[in-house]
Design goal:
6-stranded mixed sheet, 12% strand, two-stranded antiparallel sheet, 10 strands, 315 residues, alpha/beta
């Protein structure tokens, strides 16, 4: 197989914790450039005592490691993480503990700046400026476009969420241009393709969960894994990936729908506080299941964020 790169996203959940580690919530609201400068100073001073592959946690990351393992078994594979706090890092790189995300409505979000412009602009500016620094002083590629320096035969599978795609969109388009063939880049994602990435887009429907299992957060990863399994020793391409995914989608049917009532953040926090009072050692998964069983609606990532916030408030 040609040189294959797997692009993953960092996760808010980490396997480690330590007092006083860098968190974006502790960086003052300011223009993006100023926040990047202050953030880089904080992270650069933190000890790099973790391996990226072992730092992140949650179902997305467990599934990501399975995809990386399958790809690596074919040989000639590089696995990289799009990190909101560290830039582009290799899966085996030494990294510090940190708290940063490109998602909205999170205390460690890059969007908590004084910049009044659209979220997409803030995310892209953050990524552009962060990856121009020497935040970890590492020797590997600092930006996605640099993966094209391996030569025109390089292949890239991208399995990151919409907020992260939003941030790296320009970088990713530059990579497609450098490779000279959009078929060599496979973006596994749901929704409308980003402008300029239409020919690289591999549409992943939520209904694939019925065939591949797992939660929505890991469906793109499971789809990419299924593509590699189906193609075997054959090199993947965007067109081949689309055909495999389309076949799986056709066999999946429709996702079941639930008549649940959407709740405001304050109402969900009140519910979580009450639940934790009764079940102090409850997990987020068990709490969300109980919440939904009561006829209430909340997306998993949002519930996870509020659950963590409730935990912090109670300590």
């Amino acid at each position: 197989m040609q040189k294959l790169h797997i692009i993953l996203a960092c996760t808010a959940r980490k396997r480690a914790s330590e007092p006083g580690y860098p968190r974006l919530r502790n960086v003052a609201r300011a223009p993006v450039s100023d926040r990047v400068t202050e953030w880089v100073a904080l992270v650069s001073a933190a000890p790099q005592k973790y391996v990226a592959a072992n730092l992140y946690a949650g179902e997305y990351w467990q599934t990501a490691r399975k995809l990386a393992s399958r790809a690596e078994s074919a040989g000639g594979t590089g696995v990289f993480v799009v990190s909101a706090g560290l830039g582009l890092v290799g899966i085996s790189d030494a990294v510090p503990m940190y708290g940063a995300t490109l998602a909205a409505r999170h205390p460690d979000s890059v969007l908590a700046s004084s910049d009044p412009t659209a979220p997409s602009h803030v995310r892209r500016q953050w990524w552009d400026e962060l990856t121009c620094t020497e935040i970890l002083r590492r020797n590997g590629p600092q930006r996605l476009v640099e993966l094209g320096e391996d030569g025109s035969e390089a292949l890239v599978m991208v399995c990151i969420g919409r907020d992260y795609l939003d941030a790296v969109a320009t970088d990713l388009k530059n990579l497609v241009e450098r490779l000279g063939d959009p078929e060599r880049v496979m973006v596994f994602a749901s929704g409308t393709p980003l402008v300029g990435l239409e020919d690289s887009w591999v549409a992943v429907s939520g209904s694939l969960r019925l065939v591949l299992g797992g939660s929505l957060s890991s469906t793109n990863l499971r789809a990419a894994t299924a593509v590699l399994a189906e193609l075997g020793a054959s090199s993947p391409s965007a067109d081949k990936a689309r055909r495999v995914v389309a076949s799986l989608t056709a066999s999946a049917g429709k996702l079941p729908t639930y008549d649940r009532q959407r709740q405001h953040d304050d109402a969900i926090l009140d519910w979580i506080h009450g639940y934790l009072a009764e079940v102090p050692n409850a997990t987020k998964t068990a709490a969300l299941r109980c919440f939904r069983d009561g006829g209430k609606a909340c997306e998993q990532a949002r519930f996870d964020r509020l659950f963590e916030h409730a935990r912090e408030m109670s300590t």
